[in-house]
Amino acid sequence: MFEFAIHVVIVALIYGLSAISLNLQAGVAGLLNFGQVAFFGMGAYALAIAAKAGLPWPVGILAGMAVASLAGAGIGLLGRNLAAEYWAISTLALAEIVRLIALNEDWLSGGPQGLGGFPIPFDGVEGVRRGLAILGLCLFVLIASLGLAIYLTRSQFGRVLRLVRDQPALARSLGHDLMSLKLRMLMISAPIAAISGSLYAGYIGYIGPDQLLPFETFLVWTMIVIGGSGNHLGAVLGAVIVEFLYAGSPLIKEYVDISYDLAASLRILLVGAGLLAFLMLRTQGLIPERPARLDARG
Question: What is the pTM of this model?
Answer without folding.
Answer: 0.93
